[in-house]
User: Fold these one by one.
Assistant:
Number 1:
Amino acid sequence: MAGTTTAGSWKSKAPATPGRRAGSPPGGTPRQRVSPDGALPGGPGAAPAPAGPANRWTVLLVLCVSLLFVALDSTVLHVAIPALTEALRPGPVQLLWIVDAYPLAAASLLILFGTLGDRVGRRRVLLLGYALFAVASAVASMASDASVLIGARALLGAGGAMIMPATLSIVRQVFPDRRERALAIGLWSAVAAVGAAVGPVLGGFMVQHYWWGSVFLINIPLMAAIWPLARWLVPESTGDRDGPWDLLGAAMAGLGILGAIVGIKRLGAGASPLDPPTLVSLVVGVALLVLFVRRQRRLKHPLIDMSMFSRPAFSTSVGCIVVAMLALVGLELIAVQYLQLVLGLHPMQTGLRMLPLTFAAMAAGLLGSKVLHRVGPRLMVVTGFTLTASAVLALTVMGEHDRPLLLTAAFVLLGFGLETTLFGAYESMLSECPAGQAGGAAAIGETAYQLGAGLGIALLGSVMNAFYAPGVRHLPGVPRADSRGAGHSLGEAYDLSHQLGGRPGAVLRDAARQSFVHGLHVTLVVSAVLLLLGAAAALRLPRAFDGSADPHANACGGTSEPGTEAAEPAGPTGSAEPTDEAATGSGAEAARVGAQAEGRVGAKSRV
């Protein structure tokens, strides 16, 4: 496939001779290789071969650090919301947009930047994402009003949309062997979980010792350090460049996702389905997504190959990612409010309380490859959902008083279960896609991730509000206007109770606490039901893990396509040189040799 980094995509100009490899001059120094169309490596339409054993794990380290920044920013602001609210005084809608602008912008732009990386180069898009992330972080840290902060958070989301699919598609490219790739994805997903969970801890420390804007400043020196490392270490790669890039399709997908999520968010905030802005957002968003799918099916060179969704493993994996993230992010935001506003913990204490979730997720990611090999994708994802649902139901025992042992045990089970689910889903999804579509497939997976996060805040937040607000609506001695204001959030109820003082203030405060805990319990039950539905859907995943060969080897580079040479295992420099058999054999023989070569790579480096 033109433009795809494949193990057998480099041809030799001269036949092999005894005592030296094909493609090397008599002196033994490797000659410069060319692609099947005669282009030099790095030229138009060309991409380097997969990274070799000596450097692919270094590449993974850089990619994991890149992902860490994006995951941190998805949660680092949660514990800073009380301090931010006091400093900027945003309205209820503005506060929701401050939280949601980041995931909404990221979700709507992932397909655009993921497929763009397949065309112009994944590393190039990654580096551009670093730069935008640093600039947006500087603007956010110095924001003087809520509107500026919302705009900066949207720019951060755009930078994240460049970084996230690039990291996953490059992992797909530099790890053609599925067993090694499973371990790499385990490390990758563990870092994502660590970033999301460490965010509140780091944010709490920065807010407690500095000011709320400092949670963004930490991105700038880190980005300045990682940019040259990525420029030097990460190989450039592209996907299928056949035909024009469908910019119109990318815009339709982005606007459709944005419109759908905005409509759902308005419903979650209590708007009527017939409210014009809500109705227009939903109708336009869904219509654009339907038109996008129909357009991709008609195009000869689509932006995203929609036939991937016809594979049960791919479509089911995407759905599982949405459900898992819906539970994680929605519950995490509510849990932070519970720890701070009900139990009265400081931001730093709140972050520390959530560390068990981080460590459990790390353990699940590191063990994920071995578990997947042993039990297979189906049992792994079903078990992960079941463990998570059990943890969520255990949290319903929590009330107005602190129970640290129970909370810690539930967080451990929650982190391990969710990471197990996400690992199995991501690995199955990525293994079902051709390498030439890696950027688009990674964008779909990350869109599902961000879509689930946005839906979690909207759906679980709306359930929470529906059962919280009635508890403070009619209270003796409390003015009706104050009761309505207290129904917006527990934090606002506390402010109003302080202003009222005396007996009415105490009544409002106690009622708000009790109502919040009641709403939390209902929300946890709803979340558990959704997780069990996810477990039922995961029964469509493959029963066994097939690590013997890439299921799409001919398309993804695990073996060579007919008529091209297969590759020996990549050497320490990352080059993949053709074998003598592949240089002279038929297409079928080339495929056989390529499969054997990939198997030797996995056998040498299997953990």
Number 2:
Amino acid sequence: MSGAAQPAGRAGLGERLLDALDRWVPKPAAWAFALRIWLAMMLALYTAFWLQLDSASSAAVCVAILAQPKRGQALSKAGYRFLGTVIGGIVGILLIALFGQDRVLLLVSFACWLGACVFIAQFLQDTRAYGAMLSGYTVAIIAVAHIDAPQTVFDAAIGRVAAIAVGIVAITFINDALASPSTWRSLLPRLAAAHAAAKAFARESLTQGDPGPERTAALVRQVAPMRADASAIAGELDDGVHRAAGARSAIAALYVLAAASRALAAALDRIPEPGPRVREAHALALRAVLDGADASPQTLARDGERLRDLVDAGMCEANASLDEIMALQRALDVTNAATFAEDGVRALGDGHEPLRDIALPTHRDFQVAVRAALRVMIAFGLAAGLFILLGLPQSSFALVQVAATCSLSSVTPDPRKFAQGVLIGMPLAALCAGFILFVMLNGNQGFPLLAIAMVPPVAFGCLLSLNPPTFTIGFITLVFTPVLLAPENPQSYDPQTFLMNGLLVVVAAVILFLTIRLVLPISASQHRAFALEEARRDLAEALVGEGGDATTRTSLNADRLFQFSAWNSGSGAVRRASLHHAFAVAQLEAAAARAHAQLRPLSELSGLIPLVTRAREALASARSADLDRAARALIGEARAQDRTVRMQLARAATDLATASHVIRRHGRFFRRLSLPSS
């Protein structure tokens, strides 16, 4: 027995050792990524030396900042980096021209420009936000760094733009030459998995009832992060525009599929004995979310047309109930969402032009954006005052690092975690640069030796950046190692300057850490309060017919719910209640926006103007009884209209009734939001 147990124990120990090695040893793809970044950095640096650029190190730093594992991510970031650099260079030259003789005014004007860029970046998405933020601290690199020699600013701006262009060309060439993984290939299996999860969610809704807000929030959390990759696909291939549009269409459809399946389940619950039309509509909607041949494009198109016939037949029937029309329309919504999702996933895979091209807006809070801008301005102002009082010779270098790190933190999902990573990464970057400069090179000149010496820190930074918990540490190490090393031809070896620069970047990291912690901090409860206030404003706009189309609002609300679920805290009961209320606001806003979208063309028909006016007034007042009467009045008018108008009336009546049910169910909560007559 013991002899048998011993080999098993040894096997168990060996398996645990293999598991540990598998967890800690980077995969071949990670090493390939590190190799590509090292080659691109060396190519950029060598080209900058050959062109005799004054800021040759900026080319290597550019490659480090653009270090992305997927080709589309790097291309998208590169484009906005170049644009942000050009804008920042122009503004830097302009500020020096206006305030070159007055340092105080120059620093104040730069702080205002930096705050404005950070504020704008809060309302943009992904790499566009990075480009806006970059145009802010680029002014520091060009103008503030040359505050003692304003006559050199123009040459510095031209040199930096040239270095950035060299870095972009280098990383693009290496990514293409070494077949960097495409973003769409990595997104396709994730989107397919989310599509399968959404269809399973819909099947559960239609067979077992509403899964609830918690399950819906989990599905949203699976879908929402793919939006960033969807926006980075367009520049990868000739058909990248179609693939990106397909990905966006599928993501939006998955949001709608979850909401429509829950709405259909709720409508079916209100019908004690469904008639033949409702039963057939339910079966068709269920078939639309099945796997296999039943979900083929041809079947979905045929079932969608059949559901339109059922909705039209229901609208033509004299005694059709509002709940029956709602069930028929929601079944059609499920099938339409399944059609767009299926088409979008296929478009991502084969590059055909999808059925639609829509935007995926993100939720941003005005209060959060203002605080982020003020935080950066205050941090830069306090740092400028401190360094001026200390009279350090490298004060301008330190101010550039403060501006850069504070700006970068403003566009990250969690500024606190980013500040912690910077606090660890800056000393590591200083150690790496010092090791290269005074141990590996040790006074020698020559590019081959420099390239070999750069291998360990580049590999270290790349591997750390691929792991989400250590991403910031790896990113800061990768970027600031060449910043502190400052490769030149010939290379300078001044230990005093290096030690001072290393100390100043660590001080900049400490300033960032303290700023994030102490200056206008935002707690999770404040995030929820800000999001709720923005949702209340958007809801008020939707009730009166303003603020955008329903598809855009659905995506915006999904992103808001995604962020809200991350900020949601407290006991289980409190979290569930908060999610219920958040979903109620989103459902009412989407219903109001869709209803107004249908009422606008109906208002052009003279015979429907009084009914449309009453429906709009009911939405604006948020009275559930008036909404129900308006919905029934629209259904009663349907028999006198043609098929196209009947379909619009069905959609409008369904959304009016949906708004009524939501208001009736969550009346106390909506009264707290100060909605009229809720």
